[in-house]
């Protein structure tokens, strides 16, 4: 009789495995890119263009940092894009007084487009590899974020999960749990806005140099900041010889002198090649802060279910954004109508029975 009572007391519903309050959903499409100041100041990420399996120890002033690779190698400067995207979305939500969480859910495609990555199969595979390196790289440091010290060994990302895939195996919905160390920095607003052109810098070393300039210079036109070559190499975390590092840096300087491509700052070497100078540009070279994606509403997604019966509407949205991207990202007066028209044509060409 007691057994029947227990069964009667049990809810007929399955438990809600993904309660909304447990994670933050990224949906702010024009969020300004932001990076945490701690990893802009210190060399958390590898600037190597090849898999980096080097353990590293760094000390500068009172800061102590030890970074150990996983079998997949150290997290790279390009892997940092994942953190930038998450930080940007969370900060934009906080600025709108929205509730956020250490667990962040987003569309893989949205991240790829926002960070100027390819959206082909290779782009998704590179993103999956970035998740592995971010989760696997182990950090021990006394660098404080949000007023809290963390002495245990931790990863920048506690976990990364693929929540949903498309029929051909591509990631659609992804969930990332940020480490306490990163999330403490976000809650304390220890972040800085990055120029969108950051994602167009080809070389990992260029990106790292921009981070250092952004952290130390701010936006004060005509106020240069200088570093000795040894110090800048140390802050970059470069494992190259001094001679090779100078050669790489000189190439970047020469390209900036020719093209003015370095965002927000000029970067120069003195005649002896021993002093690096960052100078904020008089006119900030910010790219237009245009909307990155068409804003497709939930109402439009509901209507798409009727227009294209049998289709996964979120997969349709991902395919539509890829189509819009390929067509040159034209500004849309009515994104919902354009999306629904595209869904109608897709269903007419390839109806699902």
| Overall form | globular
Count of DSSP H/I helices: 12
Q: What class would the helix/strand composition place it in?
A: alpha+beta
Question: How can the largest sheet be summarized?
Answer: 4 strands, mixed
- Proportion in helices: 25-40%
Question: Which value, in Å, is the CA radius of gyration?
Answer: 23 Å
Can you count the beta strands?
12
pLDDT < 50 stretches:
1-6, 16-21, 285-291
Structure, explained:
With 353 residues, this protein is an alpha+beta fold. It is built from twelve helices and twelve strands. The protein has helices at residues 2-9, 37-41, 80-95, 108-114, 121-136, 180-187, 204-217, 229-236, 242-259, 298-307, 313-326, 335-349; strands at residues 24-25, 34-36, 56-60, 63-68, 103-107, 138-141, 157-165, 171-178, 191-193, 225-228, 265-269, 275-280. It has a four-stranded mixed β-sheet with strand order 1-5-8-7. It has a three-stranded antiparallel β-sheet with strand order 3-4-6, with no helix packed on it. A hairpin with a 5-residue loop joins strand 11 (265-269) and strand 12. Helix 10 packs parallel to helix 12 (335-349).
Compact description:
With 353 residues, this protein is of the alpha+beta class. It is built from 12 helices and 12 strands. Strands 1-5-8-7 form a 4-stranded mixed β-sheet. A 3-stranded antiparallel β-sheet has the order 3-4-6, with no helix packed on it. It has a 3-stranded antiparallel β-sheet with strand order 10-12-11.
């Amino acid at each position: 009789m007691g057994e029947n009572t227990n069964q009667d007391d049990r809810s007929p519903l399955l438990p809600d495995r993904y309660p909304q309050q447990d994670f933050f959903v990224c949906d702010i499409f024009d969020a300004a890119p932001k990076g945490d100041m701690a990893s802009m100041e210190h060399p958390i990420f590898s600037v190597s263009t090849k898999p980096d399996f080097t353990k590293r120890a760094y000390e500068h002033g009172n800061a102590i940092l030890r970074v150990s690779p996983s079998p997949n190698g150290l997290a790279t400067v390009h892997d940092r894009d994942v953190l930038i995207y998450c930080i940007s979305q969370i900060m934009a939500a906080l600025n709108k007084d929205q509730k956020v969480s250490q667990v962040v859910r987003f569309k893989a495609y949205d991240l790829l487009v926002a960070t100027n990555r390819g959206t082909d199969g290779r782009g998704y595979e590179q993103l999956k590899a970035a998740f592995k390196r971010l989760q696997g790289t182990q950090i021990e440091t006394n660098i404080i974020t949000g007023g809290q010290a963390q002495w245990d060994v931790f990863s920048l990302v506690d976990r990364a999960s693929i929540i949903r895939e498309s029929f051909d195996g591509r990631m659609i919905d992804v969930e990332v749990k940020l480490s306490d160390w990163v999330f403490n920095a976000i809650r304390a607003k220890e972040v800085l806005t990055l120029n969108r052109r950051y994602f167009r810098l080809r070389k990992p070393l260029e990106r790292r140099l921009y981070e250092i300039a952004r952290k130390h210079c701010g936006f004060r036109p005509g106020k240069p900041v200088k570093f000795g070559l040894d110090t800048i190499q140390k802050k970059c975390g470069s494992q190259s010889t001094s001679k090779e590092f100078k050669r790489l840096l000189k190439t970047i300087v020469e390209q900036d002198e020719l093209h003015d491509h370095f965002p927000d700052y000029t970067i120069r070497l003195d005649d002896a090649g021993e002093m690096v100078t960052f100078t904020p540009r008089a006119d900030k070279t910010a790219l237009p802060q245009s909307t990155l994606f068409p804003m497709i509403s939930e109402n439009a997604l509901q209507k798409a279910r009727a227009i294209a019966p049998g289709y996964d509407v979120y997969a349709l949205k991902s395919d539509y954004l890829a189509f819009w991207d390929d067509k040159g990202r034209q500004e849309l007066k009515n994104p919902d109508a354009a999306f629904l028209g595209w869904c109608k044509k897709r269903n007419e060409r390839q109806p699902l029975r």
